[in-house]
Amino acid sequence: LSLLNVDEIIDKYRQKLDKLRHECHTTVDRFYEEKCQELQQCCVEKIGEKRKKIHELKLKTNELIREQDATHMTIFAH
């Protein structure tokens, strides 16, 4: 084997390795983007649920305040 043949063989396998590396990076990037989207969606859903719960609590609090005011006015009206 001449030195030239060895260099050609090394170059050939290095190209294959470079291609594999590129494909792996592409796969990792795709996976990363997918997980980022899943995280975003999960956070939006959780925040939506929390906002809905807060809204329900505000409505209930207002209802209780109105009931208390009505009871208070009834007591002092007699």
From TrEMBL:
<keyword id="KW-0175">Coiled coil</keyword>
<protein>
    <submittedName>
        <fullName>Uncharacterized protein</fullName>
    </submittedName>
</protein>
<feature type="coiled-coil region">
    <location>
        <begin position="3"/>
        <end position="30"/>
    </location>
</feature>
